[in-house]
Batch of 4 targets.
Target 1
Amino acid sequence: MISILTHSKINGVYINGSWIETKTYFKNYNPATLEVINHVSNATIEHVDQAIKSAQDALNYWKNLTSKQRNQYILEFSKKMENDKFNLAKIVSTEQGKPLKEAISEIDKCFDFINFFTEENLRISNYNLASYKKDTDITIKYEAIGVVAAITPWNLPIGMIIRKIIPALCAGCTVILKPSSETPWSAIKIAEYFSSILPNGVLNLITTDNDDEIGRKLSTSNKIDLLTFTGSSFTGKKIISESSLTIKKLLLELGGNAPFIVFKDADINKAADDLIEAKFRNAGQTCTSVNRLYIEETISTKFIQLLIQKIDKLKLKNKTSNDYDIGPLINNAAIEKVEYHIKDALLNGAFLIYGGKRIEGDGYFFEPTLISNVNSDMEVVSSETFGPVLPILTFNEFDNNIVEKANDCPYGLCAYVYTNDLIKGSNIANKLEYGMIGINNNRPTQVNTPFGGFKESGYGKECGRDGLLEFMRVKSVYSTQVYEPRYTSAIQVRKNINN
């Protein structure tokens, strides 16, 4: 087993049941301290080719097992992961930066996903349809789509892996996993748990910091049947373009720009608590994170004061304690993006009312930040910041365009509405162009519910029954009964009659 902070070379290339050493390695950093945690195997295109072949070779055996047989492998993996849960949570917290309590919560939710998919897997069955033609039977069959490439992000380094590879494996697919180069250690641990359980080639792992070249290889390979990716809309568009010649199926969970709308009749204390959790969880680095706050004018001053009082109580990580609420951003590029969005807003007339600065010292820490007097032309409103910055806009009771304002962005992943008038909340939810909407609820996600957005937030669904069916293809089989005639010709008929 790997211990915390080994600062050693670790293998992250796992192909056909074997860990493979590479010629070069890349550094795995702790974003809270900037220390090097590990040196990780840097895969090449040749390794990707080997992983694809390994997955192809294993596919026929794996997909022809029964659902129950595949489930047994996955449930055995789940036990291994649960037995090592706290060590795994420390790894997540160390290489991603989130508080340990958030890392534990992320892993706990993984077990819910595993339990759901293995149970739902048993409920997917072929079925028959009535035919318009006599003596014909029709069977609708569900089959594994084939070889799956899963490219996962760094913000939920365990959660996103489980959400992608478990339904793929349940469906009978074989998998090539490429985790983010920011959080490879978590993925290596997942492959370790599986390594003594799965048949060779069913799961293959590729770690690399050469994301563009390796990603392009996975996108363009005609031997991969489905590519599932979570990340930016910019990268998602590249994948769509690069994969177009192969016409492979894509499952894309891309950017978000979630509006949080608070009406004057809302429970403002609950709304403030829920907003802080939805905004500052993982330092604002989640795809469902609140990116824009809309408050009804008559309560705006009171609500902002309440927010500030609550934000003052949040604890940022320091060197003497692991009990904290907000960790670091993932890297310096993330810090620079946050700083750019704030600078752009202030230069164009916005007011900084809380925070606004990088925290000096080691690590990529940034203060929780509130900005007012913003408009939709500012980057902090129109783009996804992916950090602890909250722009605040107001509206009045006669403003019939609040839904239009909330919809005025290229993304459509998640939105939040707070009001005690549930009829009003429901009417607004019906008009919002978002795949997931929370009414007085800051966690509109659940393992048995489809997760995914509209517009540039991607397409396809993760979670729920839909998330399992994404990894299957549907085949219609028509069987017509052929009756062999007793007599093959009129001459034979006459002969038999005369006899």
Target 2
Amino acid sequence: MELGHAKVYPRDINYIMMTPSAAGGGYVSFVHELGHALGLHHPWKSIGTYKDRLKRIEAREMQLKTYLANNKLYKDNIKVGNFGKTLGELRNEINKELAQLRQEKTAKIRLNPKIYFKRSTTENIMDYNGYNDTKTQEIIYNTFSEGTTFWKWQWDLMNEEVKTYHSKLL
């Protein structure tokens, strides 16, 4: 059962949601979700997860760029189908989405971990205390129990995240 959830991308709509049981269960779940909101993933995220998302980003970028290229000769004030928008408005939206996709792609490439750990095997706060192995139906417990540390590269990433995206709010 998930105790909380946080969103990493797109960065301008990050959030943290905690269930009542998690909110009353101490700081660990909150700090874990805060880590997600500041750009961190689980240390056991597979390289396939990153590659799959990168492929989806690149496919969407190609789709949007193709649309722009196919319509580059038309004027901005032309109404577009059933959208109720002009081509100029649609181009602006597409360019914003392309910028977000580039930002996420850059972050994914930069954040792609060089080392992966098995789930529930580290003292890292972004790891899990345990999980139910769906293949064996066995409950796997983390011998380190509650995560207590962030690694240096995670601190660096969170600091960069705060400076780059959240300091504008201060």
Target 3
Amino acid sequence: MKEIQAIIQPFKLSAVTDALQVIPGVGGITAMDVRGFGHQRGENGLEKPAHGSVNYTPKVMLVLAVPDAVVAPVLAAIERHAHTGNPGDGKVLVLPVEDALRVRTGERGEGAL
């Protein structure tokens, strides 16, 4: 099992989640409004932050847990639907998941996803 954390542009949320929902094995998605900065330190080319400060830019963070076999199609869908070609398109992290628990039923492992 893997946890996938995708940080994307807010205006790409609908396209990405629509693409992820049709992939068999994607059981659910958590979306959170977040703020951050990358290599550009929040600079968009139009305005410069004050010396020593950083502009945090709004992003959306998607978190989902999936079976190993689903990782490749999930990454492909995120890349295809979140891409604009501009700085700030985001990042995707894939992390190992040791176990999962569905609280309602007590199921463990991939059955809990």
Target 4
Amino acid sequence: MKLTLKIWRQPDDRTKGRFLTYQLDDVSPDMSFLETIDLLNQNLILAGAEPISFDHDCREGICGSCAMYINGRPHGSDNASTTCQLYMRSYQDGDTITIEPWRANAFPVIKDLMVDRSAFDRIIQSGGYISVNTGSEVDANTIPIAKDIADAAFADAMCIGCGACVAACKNSSAMLFVAAKVSHLALLPQGQPERQRRALNMVAQMDAEGFGSCSNTGTCAAVCPKEISLDTIAQLNREYRQARSKV
């Protein structure tokens, strides 16, 4: 296939960026989207030009680092999928594809398609953990957990922190991310000792990082590659209200 790629190029967070257009030939329908950018970068390097900077790691839909807008949608057109799981058979010969980084004040551009998502790390550090001293290793099944609760906790724990929810939200809200991290620990017995403090601290850190407010439009859940439910935000609101009432 022959494709036209319009890609956002920005040297750093202090320099104004712009779209540059590249022509790419011999793209196989079996190539992943990231392999296509690899091919373009190979051509740029051979031509003595600066390659495109973009985040990637596992390329298996697990790490959440392949964050980019593709034709106006986080991670591209496929539902429940990350960018690295998108294949070029989703496009037609001659298509034009526009690629840009996440757009959120809390995710400043580092270079080209790379953004700084360390705000998520700081939210996790504020309370997304369990610090109970468990001692030596124990049998994983010593604490019985009802299947419906275990399933709900696992569904929320599927969040990979990619930031698609923030990128899709008109307010750049991180509520779905924070909700998933708070909810899955709140549902499990191991998460009870710090349950109230966790909700208060993580919401406070989210606000401190400059994320916007949630207005329940649902775009976050619509683009989430792990299909985290919008109901999770309702769970976070309940956790936060209960914690505030006991302060």
